[in-house]
Specification:
Elements lengths: L34 H16 L2 E4 L2 E4 L2 E3 L2 H10 L13 E11 L16 E6 L9 H6 L6 E6 L2 E13 L2 H13 L4 E3 L5 E7 L5 E5 L2 E16 L5 H4 L2 E4 L22 E5 L12 E2 L7 E3 L3 E2 L5 E6 L20 E4 L4 E5 L5 E3 L55 E2 L2 E2 L4 H9 L2 E4 L2 E2 L3 E5 L17 E5 L2 E2 L5 E6 L2 E6 L1 H4 L9 E5 L4
Length: about 500
């Protein structure tokens, strides 16, 4: 027999020998459910529950059922019937074959590691011959040891089977189909063992086949079975793990107890010597750990009663003030009588479940507001906000901006003259020149005055067309002389002189 190659040290998993239990005399065996077990339930259910039979020449004939191997199934698909080893036609007969397997995604199983599944069911063995429940245990208050067994949840699958029925007459076929239909929807399997729910569908009508002048009736149907798998290959690791609950604790010489982790209250240990006045053969010694003090001595020899008080340096009661240099919470930190919580979210950010009142400054690299901001000074809501400290800073607002007070832009008060600003922006009139010289076009119009804080109206606020053609602004200049609006043209730049019969149209911010 070949020997298995040892696993390298770097790949060996840490093994807890404290969980190893001898199971030599254990009658609880490892569980395993395989595809062969599921196929066997079909054979058992047909042979022992459905018990298919037909009437042949006044006699009751049991219909055999077989699992068709690839050779038989190929013959059945190719010829439509099966022969035995003596080349005799097998009739009546039921043959079936598994056609597909798929995982049932509606019943997920947490199995990140198949050798250590997360989902399992634990049951207790009630009685063992080595753990008898006697009167002595009852009088002494001893709790018997319990044997616990953990069995993982299996993988759930769906299996498809195809069945073929052969018989000689339609009446025989009808009775067979009736018996099988009646069993649909039930759990197939042996009592006390594995059972699987079935669903039968896709029946075909009985068809007639003539083989060597012999008449055969054939019917096919499909069976869907909801099964589950628990492979035997993993049985020594994941199924029916045995654990024992502790029955008693024995403290012998050389056993130390670390009380340094006690942080809730002081611990008092009272011990009294028995026997001779010589004391204990092996005195008990106490050693204080980090943050732990012991009052009443550190050794007890049994000659006189001894009282020892263990303390941690400060009161940690529910109404006490406790000070630590550093506190780490593994989940949620609760503060105050109303259980004010500070916890960590799934994205790694800190979360507070109530309002915060900060009497000092809040300094943050990024300040993100998801709802609204209210400045609170003492009991009334007031204060000013400053965003940015130089012109390179950019403040972005998504949504609407509502201003109930004044708005100052570049030193000018926009909020007190919103109506004038709106009227100025909306002004746009069209005028036609009434007099033209070689370099000047005159309009009877007055330009609109820009509100305080904005640039004065200039040629950039107008568009000019000469005989329907756009005039470039680089060669234009406007001038307001009383009620006359003048357009001066740089003829050298524009490339032509104005003539008296030219038509010049101006559109822009005229007063009316």
């Amino acid at each position: 027999m070949a020997r298995e190659k040892p696993i390298p040290r770097s790949l060996r998993r840490d093994k807890n020998r404290g969980r190893d239990r001898s199971r030599n005399d254990d009658n609880v065996k490892n569980l395993s459910v395989g595809l062969m077990d599921i196929d066997a339930t079909i054979m058992y259910y047909f042979n022992n529950v459905i018990k298919p039979t037909v009437e042949e020449n006044g006699e009751t004939v049991k219909v055999p059922i077989m699992y068709a191997n690839p050779e038989r199934w190929t013959m059945a698909q190719k010829k439509g019937f099966l022969y035995d080893n003596k080349k005799q036609l097998i009739i009546p007969l039921i043959a079936f074959k598994r056609t597909s397997i798929e995982k049932d995604e509606t019943l997920p199983v947490d199995k990140m590691d198949p050798l250590n599944p997360r989902l399992k069911y634990t049951f207790q063995k009630q009685y063992t011959s080595k753990n008898r429940y006697d009167k002595f245990s009852v009088q002494r208050g001893l709790t018997p040891t319990k044997e616990m067994y953990a069995v993982p949840v299996p993988d759930y699958i769906k299996l498809e089977y195809e069945f073929v029925l052969w018989c000689s007459y339609t009446e025989q076929m009808n009775k067979l189909v009736e018996q099988i239909i009646y069993s649909e929807g039930s759990y197939w399997g042996e009592d006390g063992k594995f059972k699987f729910r079935t669903q039968i569908n896709n029946y075909t009508d009985a068809s007639e086949i003539n083989v060597n002048s012999e008449r055969i009736i054939k019917t096919t149907f499909n069976v869907t079975m909801n099964g589950y798998l628990l492979p035997e290959e993993f049985s020594s690791v994941v199924t029916t793990q045995k654990e024992l609950t502790p029955k008693r604790i024995i403290i012998e010489d050389g056993i130390g107890i670390d009380l340094g982790a006690v942080t809730s209250k002081d611990v008092k240990v009272t011990m009294q010597g028995r026997g001779s006045s010589a004391g204990l053969d092996n005195p008990v010694s106490f050693f204080g750990g980090t943050g732990l003090t012991i009052d009443g001595g550190t050794t007890f020899d049994g000659t006189t009663p001894g009282n020892f008080t263990f303390g941690i340096g400060q009161d940690v009661g529910t109404s006490s003030t406790v000070q630590f240099s550093n506190v780490t919470a593994s989940n949620t930190l609760h503060i105050g009588p109303t259980s004010f919580e500070i916890s960590q979210r799934q994205d790694g950010k800190a979360q507070v479940n109530t309002d915060w009142v900060v009497q000092g400054d809040i300094i943050a690299e990024n300040y993100i507001v998801s709802s609204s901001v209210i400045n609170v000074t003492q009991s009334n809501h007031s204060g000013s906000n400053i965003f940015g400290n130089n012109l390179e800073d950019t403040q972005e607002f998504t949504g609407s901006v509502s201003i109930s007070g004044s708005l100052t832009l570049n030193g000018g008060n926009v909020g007190t003259d919103v109506t004038t600003f709106d009227q100025y922006v909306r002004k746009s009139f069209v005028k036609k020149s009434n007099a033209i010289t070689a370099q000047t076009a005159s309009f009877t119009a007055i330009t609109a005055s820009a509100p305080t804080g904005f640039d004065s109206t200039n040629e950039q606020d107008f568009i000019f067309f000469i005989n329907g053609q756009y005039m470039e602004h680089d060669a234009l200049e406007i001038q307001q002389v009383g009620t006359t609006f003048r357009l001066k043209v740089d003829t050298d730049s524009i490339g032509y002189d104005l003539e008296s019969d030219d038509e010049i149209i101006a559109q822009g911010k005229f007063n009316s």
